[in-house]
Amino acid sequence: MDVKTGFFYLFSVVLLLAAFRVITARNTVHAVLFLMLAFSQAAALWLLLKAEFLAITLVLVYLGAVMVLFLFVVMMLDLNMDSIRKGFWRHFPLAATIGALVALEMAAVLMGGFRVAEEPRVAAAAAGAAQAVPYSNTKALGQLLYTEYLYPIQVAAAILLVAMFAAIALTLRQRKDTKTVNPADQVRVRARDRVSLVSLAATQKAAAPANEEKQA
After folding, report:
1. Which of 42, 97, 184, 210 is the 20 to 30 Å CA partner of 34?
2. In this structure, are 3 and 75 located in the same domain?
3. pLDDT < 50: residue spans in the chain
4. Number of domains the chain is built from
5. How many Cα atoms occupy the beta-carbon half-sphere of 126 within 13 Å?
6. How confident is the model at residue 186, as a pLDDT?
7. Distance (Å, rounded) from C-alpha 12 to C-alpha 4?
8. What is this structure's pTM?
9. What CATH number is given to the structural domain containing 74?
């Protein structure tokens, strides 16, 4: 067994254990942390398969943004796990059936084996012999995305932009328990509306001491 195979088994075992702990951990924060560990191991497996772009995307998007958002949401919502666990055994047969089906499909794929394609080779201009050239998956994917699939990428970006504005519009609600300031009122403010000048005498008669008032 070479080093690459050893790393594959190591990352796979850690990935399976982390995924198992995601669904068995009683603390939701611990479950999110185990899910982050599972994503990191999946990114390592992508690196072993020479899919650098997918590995970096998995780390940046899921570990750097989505999982951090999940963690903050879970910590701030204070979820009641007792109400979430209700009906677990009622849905367990269906979940076990789907899980067994997925496991059988994965076993069928693993027993069938994988065909590994060789890296592209080009003929040398001078010697005419085949020589291996450096091949970048990220560069090839970028060329495909921004040449052949340019319009679908732009459509997907527009849909995501509209979805972002829709999410902001749905969550931006007027609340009575918050103190907000209208910028239009601040612009139209006048000095006489905020400050009032009161005329007072320059000197005032001093108040009589308390002892003199008692004697009087």
Report:
1. 97
2. yes
3. 117-131
4. 2
5. 0
6. 79
7. 12
8. 0.52
9. 1.20.120.1200
